[in-house]
Each structure stands twice: as structure tokens, then as C-alpha cells.
Amino acid sequence: MTRIAVIADTHIGVSKPNFVDNWRRAAQRVNDRRPDLTVILGDLTFDGANSDADCAFAREALADLKSPCLVLPGNHDVGDTDRGSRQPANAERLARWVRTFGADRWVSDEIDGWRLIGLNAQILGTGLPEEIEQWRFLEQALVTDRRTIVFTHQPLFLEHRREGDRPYWASVATARHRLLELTTRAGTLAILSAHMHRALSAVSSDGPALFWVPATSFLTRDTSMPPQNGAEMLGVTYLDLTDDGFSVAFDPAPGLEPFYIEDFNGTLYPAPSK
To answer: pLDDT digit string (tens) for 187-198?
Structure first.
């Protein structure tokens, strides 16, 4: 069996280090479980989309993990898919990520019989040249006789796959349908995403199983969020791969302080639109 730890939405940085202690507790929890690999599923930084210092801090913090590590960006790392956002993903923000953390997408064939594919969710549906390159990358990555699992920060949808666009919260419909079509045709077993700070397992009979992994940083109250599924929890996630298949388990990681972002009254992040 191969065990992969998945850590998401840590939101660590130097200007506002409110969630750094939770990162350190989560990293120690993961180290105690001795996974073969750790995947960071986006929003590693507090404000890496605008701050070199936050990126540098987060890059150094990865040394807290004893296992090999693969990292993907989230909206607070490289910006939003929404072209009208106050911080849209763009070439400058993407270049900052690549300088600090390496590629914003990856393929890993280190586990016998399995292929792990990491995608940058923050460029899906943007029309950026990097999005066009990433679709080509994905199409090529899915051509394999290995079993595939896809990782991406932003979920494909909140309630159902035919819902309208919610550009801050989930993939826009055009990208959602294309990604589901490609992965379903390729027989991808699962897509793991983050961003919602909730835990969710959604097994599908007509495509990949979909999972939301919990955050380590903070929770959100339903009154400030759009309608959504999943369970409120802080923690880390373990993906176990065997010759027979895979399993996903959510670990509520004792010791994580249960912050609610609303209690900071907008002093950390401005409230997004529901």
C-alpha cells in the first residue's frame, strides 16, 4: 500500500501569520503517519498572489514535512479565474509561483501502476495562454495504461455538475464539462479538490469519484457561503493506493485551533460574493 497525505488551504504567510501554528500541527500529524508522499492542494500561502515574502515563507515551511511533496496553487497563491476579480490569475502571478515552487501542474508516475496528475485550477476557463497549454498537458497525461487520479484546488461544482457559473467558488461550466468529459473517457478514478474548507465524498457511477478535502487553517459559517455540501471540519486527508484500488479518509487532526474566518471581521480577507 502507498499512502498519500493531502494538506489543503493552509493560508500561511509572514504579514498575517494567524494560521501558521495550525500548519505546524498538521505537518507534525502527517509526519507521525509517515506517508510516502504529501500533496499540498492549494492556498498554501496567505497572499502569495501579491506577496513574494509570503511565497518565500511558505516555501521554507515545506521543510517541516518529512515526506516528498508535490504542490499545487490555489486562488490565494496565483489569483482567481474570474477576469473581473481584484486579483485575477495572470502571467506575473503565475511566474511568481513557478519561481518559488516550481511547475503549477505536474504528472507523477512514482507509484507503480498509478499516475497522479496535478492541475492549476486557477487558469481553467480564463482564456490565458497557460490554460491552452494545460489542456494539451492534460490530454497527453491521460493517455496511459496506469490508473489515474487528478488533483486540483477548486472544485468542479458546488451542488451538481449542471449548475451555473460560480467563478470564485468552482470551475466555470465550460471548463467543468471539458474536464469531466476528458477524465471520464480516460477512466480516471477520482478527482480531489479543496477550497471549500469542508470534507466531502461523492462517488459517481458515470465518472470519477469527487472529493473535497478539509483545510487546516479556518472554517466558514454557512451564512457567509453559497449553498454547499460536505461536512464542516479542519484536518488532513489520506489517500491510500493499493493493487485493488484506492480509499480516502479524513483525519480531524487533534490540536488544530478551530478559527472561523468571519470572526476576523474582514481584517484578514475581504468577504467574497456568495
So the answer is: 999 999 999 999
Q: What is the pTM of this model?
A: 0.97
Q: How far apart are the first and last CA of the chain?
A: 41
CA distance 30 to 251: 10
212, 199 in Cβ contact below 8 A? yes
Rounded to whole angstroms, the Cα distance separating 137 from 5 reads 24
- Angle among Cα 254, 156, 82 to the nearest 5 degrees reads 105
DSSP character for 77?
H
CA atoms of 29 and 207, how far apart (whole Å): 32
Residue range 71-108, pLDDT digits in tens:
999 999 999 999 889 999 999 999 999 999 999 999 99
DSSP 241: E
Cβ-proximal residues to 4 (8 Å cutoff; 6+ apart), any chain: 35, 36, 37, 38, 39, 116, 238, 239, 240, 241
Strands (E), the chain: 2-7, 37-41, 69-72, 106-108, 114-119, 147-152, 190-193, 198-202, 209-212, 218-219, 231-232, 236-241, 246-251, 259-260
